[in-house]
Write a structure and sequence with these properties.
There is one protein chain. The chain is built from 9 helices and 6 strands. The chain is α+β, with helices and mostly antiparallel strands. The chain folds into 2 domains: about 80 residues, no CATH class; about 150 residues, VC0802-like, CATH 3.30.2130. Strand 5 and strand 6 form a beta hairpin. Helix 1 crosses helix 3 and helix 1 crosses helix 4. The longest helix has about 30 residues. The radius of gyration is 24 Å and the shape is elongated.
């Protein structure tokens, strides 16, 4: 049964509003928020959700402070799990790759998989809802176009590199790892062209001009996490 607006508490309404604002949520998680100012900022939205004309601003402030402590504790636990996966991960960089989005029917009707046995080079094939994605060594470009026919190719990106994060199996159950890496790249102004995964391999497809920077950035972060782990273990 759906809740009526009048049944929503101030605390629940405050959380709902904050959850719709990722930047604010991130600031709260890191403890860099003026809660009085934030309570005033979301007042109108909270009033709308609780279906009241007035709400004491201190009630919203207290709800925000309690929620902040809750998400900070949760983030600390997640951060430890994320760090543990990354500490035990390895990186590989594959250059000179090409990316295709191809009509699903064209792939199904083709013998594209024969390329795997005929050529000992990088080749990934992933099925989407209406198309297939191919990430392959640039050496296969002409063969792929020949097999699938150019008219069936929806998108082709050349000069791509694949940064492959090879992780332990725990990555499957730990939330936030992809977000951790994508945030790292976003802050460094590195665009991820495509994102793919295969069991414990996570493949960040990046323009070749940014590939070395992306590799070094993530490698440095992994080394920092390993050093912090060693320092913690020595205490």
């Amino acid at each position: 049964m759906k809740k009526d607006k009048s049944e929503i508490s101030i605390a629940e309404a405050s959380r709902t509003v904050i959850q719709s604002k990722p930047a604010v949520l991130n600031a709260m998680t890191n403890g860099i928020v003026n809660y009085s100012a934030l309570a005033n900022m979301i007042l109108d939205e909270v009033l709308e959700l609780v279906n009241r004309e007035k709400v004491h601003i201190d009630a919203i402030k207290m709800a925000l402070m309690r929620y902040s402590e809750e998400i900070k504790d949760r983030k600390l636990k997640f951060d430890e799990k994320i760090a543990n996966v990354l500490i035990h991960s390895k990186l590989q960089l594959k250059n000179e790759l090409i990316y295709f989005s191809v009509s699903k029917r064209a792939v199904i009707d083709s013998n594209i998989l024969k390329l795997i046995s005929d050529y000992d080079v990088y080749f990934q094939l992933i099925e989407g809802t209406n198309s297939f994605t191919i990430l392959a060594d640039v050496e296969l470009k002409d063969k792929i176009i020949e097999i699938l026919n150019e008219k069936n190719i929806l998108l082709m990106n050349e000069d791509q590199s694949g940064l492959i994060l090879i992780s332990p199996s725990e990555i499957i159950d730990v939330p936030g790892i992809i977000s951790y890496v994508t945030d790292l790249y976003a802050m460094a102004n590195i665009n991820i062209t495509h994102l793919m995964s295969c069991y414990t391999d996570t493949i960040f497809v990046i323009n070749r001009k940014d590939a070395t920077k992306a590799f070094e950035l993530l490698e440095d972060r992994i080394l920092i996490l390993r050093n912090l782990k060693n320092i913690k273990n020595k205490k």
